[in-house]
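Reagents: none. Just compute today. DinB-like domain-containing protein.
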Amino acid sequence: MEFDLEKTISILSQTPSTLAAMLNELPDEWLQKNEGGDSWCPINVISHLIHGEKTDWIERVKIILSDEKEKNFKTFDRAASIQSNGDKSIKELIAEFNYQRNQSLDYIKSLHLSDKDFLKTGVHPEFGEVTLKQLLATWAVHDLGHIAQISRVMAKQYTHEVGPWINYLSILTR
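Predicted 3D structure written out:
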């Protein structure tokens, strides 16, 4: 599939409601378990998504579209998101994410971006030059990756409970 802003927005706009449907009514045990070590639980993922809305995606869009000569992106601090949301409930976190996401999408829509805009570039600290189109496509795939991550983390909580069916549950064996 080739990049299309409306298709991208269709994914980005659905992420908060998808996460709400997946997580809002679950007991904390589902929301606070991870895959071990420094891996993230669903609450950590939502916190990360909120942090990205506040500090990353739109800031990088603005840098790319600016008239500045230097278009260097700041390094994204993934760990900052884990500390930033304190004791908020999953409903509060998803509501905040929904609000922040709506603000972001309203901003993107207000830009009335053209095909020429999608080819404008910024400089990523690791990858070098990247286009606006690549950034926006990455944003949508980033959401999908975290939805899959949450599903995987939750599924793995029952790894030992599924017994012999584990052989048919690729989410537990990959």
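The radius of gyration is 18 Å.
Action item: order primers for follow-up constructs.
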